[in-house]
Amino acid sequence: MSTAFSAGERTWQARLGKLRDVVRQEMVARQLERELPAPPVRVIDLGCGQGTQALRLARRGYDVTGVDASAGLLARFERDLAAEPAGIRGRVQAEHCLIEDFPERAGASRFPAVLCHGVLMYLADPEPVLRAIAALAAPGGLVSLLVRNGDALAMRPGLSGDWAVCAEAFAADHYENRIGVSARADRLADLTGRLAGHGLRVTAWYGVRIFTDTAASDAEPPAELAALLDCEERAGRTDPYRRVAALLHVVARMEAEPCG
């Protein structure tokens, strides 16, 4: 199944485990730990990719369904899953499917927690996926989204001294990302309104990758990684730092009676 992300998938895989990926994954995991109910809870990870978050959650005792359109990324996910103990393997299910088609496959099944990280940025129109997210979220359930921060698109080129791109970025909602794909950004106020239209109320939000967004794509995690991550985590929940993060981690709750 081909998506807008497919053109950059090989580059994405080559950079897994590099500094920028490590910061992103660790911050999302720590922030989720603050928001998710205690296990065991059923979680669906839409656009799970190589399964980094799904495996972390399964190790913590959650039952996780991962959904992705990429056969290559799911194969990597399943290889890593095969190396886990049987108890963890038994808590994970991987599904090859487009996100917008999955509610029909799931039928009446709803999930107390729905994750969709790093997906909306590759969609010219996010509405079909937002509808799927709302359809899969149980009443009162949590929804976790990771999006490109449209209010901070000028930060990376500005800090890198690319003034022509910086000047254009102030009014932009698209950008060329590090894997060579033209992607879309969301502003927090606009995304909050979109979610409200699907019965989802934003209850918390965090910044992700504040101090390390300009790091080289092939930069390795440094010796002082633990201290770096602690600083990123604190900045990600503190104004004004979180407002200029490269990524926004937005947490919402489904209203008790979903919109019809």
Concise structural overview:
This protein is 37% helix and 22% strand. With 260 residues, it is an alpha/beta fold. The chain is globular.
Oligomer: single chain
- Beta-strand share of residues: 15-25%
From the helix content, strand content and strand pairing, which structural class follows?
Answer: alpha/beta
Head-to-tail CA distance between termini: 30 Å
Rg over CA atoms: 18 Å
For the record, the CATH architecture stands as 3-Layer(aba) Sandwich
Number of strands: 9
Just give the CATH class. Alpha Beta
What is the helix/strand order?
Answer: HHEHEHHEHEHEHHEEHEHE
Fraction in helix: 25-40%
Mean residue pLDDT = 96
Total separate domains: 1
Q: Can you tell me the overall shape?
A: globular
Walk me through what this model shows:
It is a single chain. This protein is of the alpha/beta class and 260 residues long. It has a single domain (4-150, 185-254), classed as Vaccinia Virus protein VP39 (Rossmann fold, 3-Layer(aba) Sandwich), CATH 3.40.50. Helices cover 37% and strands 22% of the residues. It is built from eleven helices and nine strands. The strands form two sheets. It has a seven-stranded mixed beta sheet, with helices on both faces. Strands 6-7 form a two-stranded antiparallel sheet. A hairpin with a 5-residue loop joins β6 (174-176) and β7 (182-184). α2 packs across α11 (225-236). The longest helix is centred in the N-terminal third of the chain and has 17 residues, at 19-35.
